[in-house]
Specification:
The complex is a heterotrimer. Chain A is 69% helix and 1% strand. By secondary structure, chain A is mostly helical. A two-stranded antiparallel sheet of chain A has the order 1-2. The radius of gyration of chain A is 20 Å and the shape is globular. In chain B, strand 19, helix 16 and strand 20 form a beta-alpha-beta unit. The mean pLDDT of chain C is 90. Chain C is globular. Chain C has a single domain, classed as Orthogonal Bundle (ABC transporter involved in vitamin B12 uptake, BtuC), CATH 1.10.3470. Chain C is mainly alpha-helical. The chains are: A mainly alpha, B alpha/beta, C mainly alpha. Chains A and C meet through helix 3, helix 4, helix 10 and helix 12 of A and helix 5, helix 6, helix 13 and helix 15 of C.
Chain lengths: 324, 539, 374
């Protein structure tokens, strides 16, 4: 029983760590899509910012400066996506895919040219990473049965970005529903003409939404490179950008349901890692490829099974043209 | 060209120095490439009046209004408000200058409440809660003062169309509009709702708001305005005091020649029933009943028109009869083919039976904008073996076919390789009508045939429909334009709330009667009796 | 009326603007090369010499181009139906799997004339099947096809690794490859065919699948613009409501379009598995599926443009290999960068250069006032 409890706590703790980039990605996608800009490029922004953060961390030995670099690069990608979609009124899905492919190649080309390690960045010193934080009293309470263990291992002991991601959800909810910016954001995603005729700039509103998305994905990428892992490696996002988008769709473009979906993916991943090498009755050893494929399978199942009635923001994907 | 006589109409009675116009345009010019949308437009609107701007589709009214509301900038010319020159660079600038606009197609966010829509753009601060309380108070005051009753907490998606227009007016008034522009406001209103709107406009006028009414409906100009400007081909051609003119003169000024306000229609020669509907009903995906027990019949050589404001089930009825949607219950028979929920029919099959459909929305259904004309000319008939040889569509055949259609139905320019989107609205409509009528269908379903079409094309289209009627085609016409309905139809049905609430011969119908039916003001007993007469042989 | 633009002659739209887009992409790529301290002009010279300098280079270029034609056609066909098929990579992988299975089963005792049509059917069938599920989900459940096809790429990779390592591996082999198929299961190399009529060329992987690729281009062109099905497919792509009005069933078209698309991507397997490697192995798709997107967009989704774009990317691929020898910092990932830039400029920023052309033409028109008939 002791052992079982420990496994549960460790699994839940792992869930939070795995879900963090998904949560940040989902919130980023939320701002963008609620404003009417489809953002398939979460993946590319995460990858690019991961590379930027790892590079700057290796050079500057400071995790905070690396975070800044990650956000800056993601913001630059977001600007390009915004320019293509908003100013040039281009196809939003194509732009997103282009940026993903660009990020995939550029990170390796630059990494190879600068570090000569086939795309990987050098190992990071401790100062260049976000390490686990112990919340006040966590160590002291460690031995208190159940509650103390929960507090020490599940609630405390994560790094800063995990807490930031969890905080991002209520913050996003508040911003979207209780502020002037949020009202206009929701309006421009449903009927941009209503916003335009009210004297508000549709383009500036959408750019702000996309840049906010850049801020959040930049944080997600930085997390991947210098918090969850200790450096950048080729294509390290492995589809998490798409999974974050799926979580957002499954959560019907609302912060808390999207959080739930991200946690579900995280839980699945955490459980799957535990299942590696374990023999399941009747099937034998679970093939490692199946475990690796589980998040992708779940994505397809989610998109297939329950989305039927989810209604995307009405103006999503349609460039705004002043029609008269 | 403003002559002295015309200008006289603009001087307010009472003499002395007139107050500066609320809004004045001087020599406004606007071109879009080769199109000269506004030529040397000069007009002046007295404060606290209702001024109309009338002109047919394509005359340049919308462009002028877009300039006034900051969507476009004029190429040259001046705009003065209260005598001072201003620059309207954007909608925000227009609003700041006190100009408010009620658009033809409402610009409201369906998922918001009325209050949220009104607050959008003037939220009163970065946090919503504080602004909302103040907004609620102000909205309540406006509603009382002008008789604009709408529940501020209601969701837009739940409100009827007439209420939506009141929300649009509230939006403008909330932003302190001193000049209110209404663009084709009555297209979606019943005659009774139109009267209500005009009462609101009067209330606005009496409190000093200047109202500009843009419309192509002469009757409304006569009923509501103090003065009227007539536009034709981008220029102002006349300015009258409304009291000094009449619809015939305005129509002639709009078109530039004498206009026949009535059609030459021979007496009807009716045959057997070609289209019979019995208790047709349609429920949509959300379970809302759109068509409720509709029963009627159309004989060969007869034009039956369905009058009524959009949104009462006419569109859904057309879709059912065209095969686009299967009925939920009930049935209809077209040329002896029975269609029920269990035996549905798709549009391809309907065409084979001899039913042609000219859709209400030509951009979304009737044409593919990106296709060239010769391809749009076979939309719906792409599998017809007349166009293919060895399973391939042959370009020469398509070109010849399209050229033939264009010649017969006067589609300009005669360019089968021109993209469908580059034809004017009237010519697009003529192309669609050509495509469908050239097949000499036995049953013709047609919706809003002259929406957004210039008068020359309107006359042509009406004549073609009459010709088809004489050739023995059974025609179902759906139109929101009562003039069109009364001119063309042999029998008129009225739909309200998805039900057929009236069925009367055209010579017994007038605008008042139809208006009452559309508002379903006759009560349940009356509608039951009309329902009974609707099933029996018409007229 | 919408704001009309200065009308530009049609050849500007079809030739000049796409050329401008590609040029911009290469300009930015050149800047990146500069930024990492290499000489872009030298790089271009090395690439062109490596790709077109001798018959061996040309052979390799055309061999790569064959794959790009297949995946480019796949993406383009789906695009015309309004669908963005990113799953070319996975569909090519699984199509190759099908071909490999057929050839493993019958390669030792069936003749070539039987094996070839079977392989073609298998490649098309398996590729189509891998596209079928995302197509069905989009048509009937509204699931975004971009995400599902990307997921299916990952799933194809996982499936192939599992199969190759555990099921299909040749007995006693160190690497996850199947055994050789047998001599009857080889698509003849072009250099062998030419040798039989007296023309001697250095050996390259270029094989007869090139013929199929060209034939497929003609087929797609005929299908899209000269058949009722193609008409209906393009109608669905432009306006689903108009398609319903015209008696078309959009769901049916979505499934047909995606299955055709998947089938064409599957033919990559014909080139790689039956034409070059003669055994099943991992990663033979090598990013061809994604390049297909760039090729389709650059070629404006038209078979003729796709042929030209495929040759260009073939040059890049073959030239890229040479480049990696001469300038080690510029690996094949630089080709991926160029791909991304081409997709960006040809797909999303495609109208970027338009205002410049309009300004240019309005200048020219002012200088030579046009005499036009009414």
């Amino acid at each position: 029983m002791e052992d079982g409890f420990a496994i549960v706590v460790l699994t839940l703790s792992a869930t939070l760590r795995v879900a963090t980039p998904l949560i940040l990605g989902a919130m980023a996608g939320l701002f963008s899509e609620r404003s009417g800009i489809i953002d398939i490029s979460l993946e590319g922004k995460m990858l690019a910012s991961a590379f930027a953060a790892a590079t700057v961390a290796a050079l500057s030995d400071s995790a905070w400066i690396a975070l800044g670099a990650g956000i800056l690069i993601a913001g630059a990608f977001a600007l390009v996506h915004g320019y293509a979609c908003i100013t040039q009124k281009g196809n939003q899905v194509v732009s997103g895919i282009a940026l993903n492919i660009l990020a995939s190649g550029l990170t390796i080309v630059l990494g190879n040219a600068w570090f000569h390690r086939g795309g990987q960045t050098p190992n990071l010193p401790a100062g260049g990473r976000f390490m686990a934080i112990d919340l006040p009293g966590a160590v002291a309470l460690r031995d208190v049965p159940v509650v103390g263990r929960l507090y020490h291992q599940l609630i405390s002991g994560h790094n800063l970005i995990v807490y930031a991601a969890l905080l991002a959800v209520p913050l996003t909810h508040w911003m979207v529903n209780n502020t002037r910016f949020g009202l206009r954001l929701r309006a421009v995603g449903e009927n941009p003409q209503a916003v335009d005729t009210a004297g508000i700039s549709v383009a500036w509103l959408r750019f702000r939404a996309v840049l906010l998305g850049g801020l959040l994905t930049g944080t997600a990428g930085t997390y991947l490179a210098i918090a969850q892992n200790a450096g950048f490696s080729r294509d390290m996002t492995a589809g998490q950008g798409y999974i974050a988008l799926t979580a957002l769709i499954f959560g019907k473009w609302r912060p808390y349901p999207a959080l739930g979906a991200c946690l579900m993916f995280g839980l699945l991943d955490a459980i799957a890692i535990r299942l590696q090498g374990v023999r399941v009755a009747g099937i034998g050893e679970v093939p490692v490829q199946l475990i690796q494929a589980l998040p992708y399978l779940l994505t397809v199942i989610l998109l297939a099974g329950f989305i039927g009635k989810a209604v995307a923001p009405k103006a999503a994907g349609v460039p705004y043209v002043k029609e008269r | 060209m403003l002559t002295e006589a015309n200008r006289r109409g603009a001087v307010p009675a009472g003499g002395g120095t007139p107050p500066p116009s609320a809004i004045e345009l001087r020599h406004i010019e606007k071109r879009f490439g080769a199109v000269h949308a506004n030529r040397d437009v000069s007009l002046s609107v007295s404060p606290g009046s209702i001024t109309g701007i009338v002109g047919e589709n394509g005359a340049g009214k919308s462009t002028l209004m877009s300039i006034l509301f900051g969507f476009y900038q004029a190429d040259s010319g001046e705009i003065l408000i209260d005598g001072k020159p201003v620059n309207i660079g954007s909608s925000g600038a227009a609003i700041a200058l006190g100009i408010g606009m009620v658009h033809q197609h409402f610009v409201l966010v369906d998922t918001f409440t009325v209050l949220e829509n009104i607050m959008l753009g003037a939220e009163g601060g970065p946090l919503l809660r504080r602004g909302a309380a103040a907004a609620r108070q102000e909205v309540a005051r406006l509603e009382r003062e002008y008789g604009l009753g709408v529940d501020p907490e209601a969701l837009i998606s739940a409100l009827p169309v007439g209420a939506l227009q009141r929300v649009e007016i509230l939006k403008a008034l909330y932003r302190r509009a001193k000049i209110l522009i209404l663009d084709e406001p009555t297209g979606v209103l019943t005659p009774q709702e139109t009267d209500q709107l005009f009462r609101i406009l009067s209330a606005l006028r009496s409190r000093g708001t200047t109202v500009i009414l843009i419309t192509h409906k002469l009757r409304e100009i006569m009923a509501a305005t103090d003065a009227v400007y007539v536009m034709r081909a981008g220029a102002i051609v006349a300015h009258r005091r409304t009291a000094d003119t009449d619809p015939a003169e305005l129509a002639e000024l709009m078109v530039g020649r004498k206009v026949r306000l009535t059609l030459d229609k021979a007496a009807g020669r009716y045959g057997a029933a070609a289209l019979v509907a019995e208790s047709l009903s349609l429920r949509d995906e959300r379970g809302v009943t759109r068509v409720d027990n509709a029963s009627f019949q159309i004989r060969t050589g007869e034009i039956v028109a369905i009058a009524g404001v959009s949104g009462n089930g006419q569109s859904e009825l057309l879709e059912m009869l065209a095969g686009i949607r299967p009925p939920t219950s009930g049935r209809f028979t077209a040329n002896h083919r029975e269609v029920t929920a269990e035996t549905p029919c798709n549009p391809a099959e309907m065409r084979v039976i001899g039913v042609a459909h000219i859709p209400e929305d030509r951009h979304r259904l009737g044409l593919v904008s990106a296709f060239v004309a010769s391809e749009s000319a076979i939309l719906g008939y792409q599998r017809d073996t007349a166009y293919t040889r060895y399973l391939l569509l042959i370009k020469q055949i398509l070109m010849r076919h399209c050229a033939m259609l264009m010649e017969r139905f006067d589609v300009r320019p005669r360019a089968p390789m021109l993209r469908s989107a580059n034809f004017s609205g009237g010519n697009q409509q003529k192309l669609i009508i050509a495509r469908e009528l050239a097949r000499e269908p036995k049953i013709l379903l047609i919706g809003q045939p002259t929406r957004g079409v210039d008068i020359g094309a309107i006359e042509f289209i009406h004549r073609q429909l009459i010709l088809r009627r004489e050739a023995g085609c059974a025609i179902l016409l759906v139109s929101v334009e009562l003039d069109e309905v009364m001119a063309l139809a042999d029998r008129i049905l009225v739909m309200c709330g998805g039900r057929i609430v009236g069925d009367l011969p055209a010579d017994e119908a007038d605008e008042r009667k139809l208006g009452l039916l559309m508002a379903n003001a006759q009560g349940r007993e009356a509608s039951e009796t009309t329902a009974v007469t609707a099933i029996g042989p018409g007229s | 009326m919408t704001g009309a633009q200065t009308p530009l002659p049609c050849w500007v739209d079809i030739v000049l603007i796409p050329l401008a887009n590609v040029t911009l992409a290469f300009l930015v790529a050149g800047l990146i090369v500069l930024a990492i301290g290499e000489n872009p002009l030298l790089a271009i010279r090395v690439m062109i010499a490596g790709a077109l300098g001798d018959s061996e280079g040309v052979g390799y270029t055309l061999y790569y181009a064959t794959n790009f034609i297949f995946t480019g056609l796949a993406v383009a066909l789906a695009f015309h139906a309004g669908l963005f098929n990113i799953g070319g990579e996975g569909q090519a992988y699984i199509g190759g799997l099908g071909i490999g299975l057929v050839l493993l089963a019958g390669g030792r005792y069936l003749s070539f004339s039987v094996l070839l049509p079977l392989a073609v059917l298998a490649g098309a069938g398996f590729g189509a099947a891998w596209a079928l599920v995302p197509a069905y989900l989009q048509a009937y459940r509204g699931s975004h096809i971009v995400i599902t096809t990307i997921m299916f790429n990952f799933l194809a990779a996982a499936l192939m690794v599992y199969l190759m390592v555990n099921v299909l591996i040749a007995p006693g082999s160190m690497s996850p490859e199947s055994r050789e198929f047998g001599p009857a299961a080889h698509l003849p190399f072009i250099h062998d065919v030419l040798a039989s009529i007296g023309i001697k060329l250095t050996g390259t992987p270029l094989n007869l699948s090139l013929v199929l690729a060209i034939a497929l281009c003609v087929f797609v062109w005929l299908l899209l613009w000269h058949t009722p099905l193609g008409f209906e497919l393009r109608t669905v792509g432009h306006s689903e409501t108009a398609a319903v009005y015209a008696g078309v069933r959009p769901r049916r078209i979505i499934i047909i379009a995606m299955c055709l698309s998947g089938a064409m991507a599957g033919f990559v397997g014909l080139n790689e598995i039956m034409g070059v490697h003669h055994r099943l192995l991992l990663n033979f798709t090598a990013g061809y599926g994604f390049t297909g997107i760039a090729v389709a967009l650059m070629g404006r989704n038209h078979p003729f443009g796709i042929i030209l774009a495929s040759i260009l990317f073939g040059i890049l691929s073959q030239g890229g290999t040479e480049l990696a020898f001469t300038i080690p910092t510029l690996t094949r990932d630089m080709i991926v960068v160029i791909q991304g830039l081409v997709i960006l400029f040809s797909g999303a920023l495609s109208q970027l250069s338009r205002p410049w052309f309009e300004w240019l033409f309005s200048l020219l028109q002012r200088q030579a006032p046009a005499v036009r008939g009414a």
